[in-house]
Amino acid sequence: MEKKMSDQEVFKIMFMQLVYTFQNAAVMQLGKMMNPATNKIEKNLPQAQATIEMLRMLKAKTVNNLEKQEQDMLDQVVYTLELNYADEVEREKKAPEPKPETGKPNE
Asked: If pLDDT is split at 50, 70 and 90, which confidence band does 95 have?
């Protein structure tokens, strides 16, 4: 006889899946992972920032309402994404500006 999972157990799994979904989206938006839909690395820092903010909002709205394992996982995901975002912003600042095309043939 199979034991049926309680709603709390199902919700815990669903919560973690939700956080991982946001985490994977942010990692792709940071250009750290290939987008499986396009098979390309696509960096979009404003979108990554919005995704991280969504996780920060989720963290703020769930204060004192998560189990320790859920809270620890959410804290770690947000912390790691924020560090990666800061790293990518610094990398963008240091990247050389692309030379504007003049439309002239190579001389």
From this structure: confident
